[in-house]
Amino acid sequence: MAQATVMTDPYTQAADRLRTLTxxxxxxxxxxxxxxxxxxxxxxxxxxxxxxxxxxxxxxPVPLLLVFALMNRPYxxxxxxxxxxVEYMVKQGYDLYLLDWGAPGPEDKNLKFDDYTLDYMxxxxxxxxxxxxxxxxxxxxxxIGAILTSIYSALRPDDGLRSLILxxxxxxxxxxxxxxxxxxxxxxxxxxxxxxxxxxxxPGEMIDYGARALxxxxxxxxxxxxxxxxxxxxxxxxxxxxxxxxxTDNVPLAGGAFRQLIVDLYRNDRLMxxxxxxxxxxxxxxxIRANLxxxxxxxxxxxxxxxxxxxMSKVSSSDKELFRIAxxxxxxxxxxxxxxxxxxxxNGWLAPRxxxx
Amino acid sequence: MADExxxxxxxxxxxxxxxxxxxxxxxxxxxxxxxxxxxxxYAQAAGAMLDTxxxxxxxxxxxxxxxxxxxxxQLAMPSRADIVSIAERMTHIEMRLDDLDAKLDEMHKxxxxxxxxxxxxxxxxxxxxxxxxxxxAGQSKRMKRGKK
Lengths: 357, 148
Known about the structure:
Chain A is an alpha/beta fold. Chain A contains 15 helices and ten strands. Chain A has one domain: Rossmann fold (3-Layer(aba) Sandwich).
């Protein structure tokens, strides 16, 4: 039976569209809905444990800790119900933890990778081990979070790390021609002392501008046109709203860490050269022995594949896999195809490596 | 059949060809912009703009900071630097507390383990002693009766 088409006059339709547009542009979507419990906190850093939904006897005994970037909110991993990596992994039976770095204040301007990897991460991991009762654990690091997890894994290889997952990991900075950011922060054009002298921490708005300016037409024009074209489709509007909430929720980057990112990594590529020194200790990536999965987004304009591939030949892990997937830096984990391709692959790789030894 | 056909076919949208043209134009523009921002000239220009902004704004910012510092001193109020220093010390204290908490957890675990072991070890002895205890209980009853 044919349904009668509901006819709306153009004025009502235009008013509805404007109302929807105003709503998504001026309000925040309900995000990070998966139930969780705060189990540890130091300074701005917080460790959350997601409430398990699978009975203890069916759960993977090795817990998984998610470590996201320092300059964005980690709830991109738990964007909205029905479209959340966290929700998916909890349903797959993981004892799941998330390390939220929080927003650094003026008192944190001297925080460096040293502090994050040797003060905060070991303590959060100690707490996770105590709660889960497991001496072994897995780590998933995304973007700058992958830099931190790599440094941690190299500095503390005997801490019980069984599996390491690196998502769009910017680790190799040798290909200066392929990295737009490297060109922008070249010492001839970018005076880091002056910037940090003025701001203390690198403002989130400036980082956001940098990320958007890599693809200005897409980010400043096409993105909004896409919303307008699909304004009558509630599914598209809901997804856009959630993503826009995340994109516009910027976090400053601690001055010390930003300096290391620019000077040690972007300008001098010290991590890959084996010259990066963290609190007096040289970071030697060959000390990483954990099972390794590196995920590369083929359309990533923030972290091109040339930055993530080389770690595969640097680590000592006997069990390692490089997984390439179509999509962008964020899209591979939060886009429409994430639940079909990326998440099942991560689960398929990690599940057999999360059992009892 | 007619119903199915009407379901599948979209109503004619006069804006559709325009949208196609628009997207093609945006695509071309986007590619040229990506190339443009990836040049030395763009990096130089962006750097110069930021540098100019910082050069111009720094004296004002410093003047405001100095004035604020003096005002706070006059009012016997803590300055931003004082608060920052306290916050840093708080973080150190938090870390020390976290370490103590972890050590206490460890000690609690060890004590619980030791307690479980000693209970397990004393269980057979207790079982051996159990009949004697009944005897004693019986004796005491007798004693009580004797007293009566």
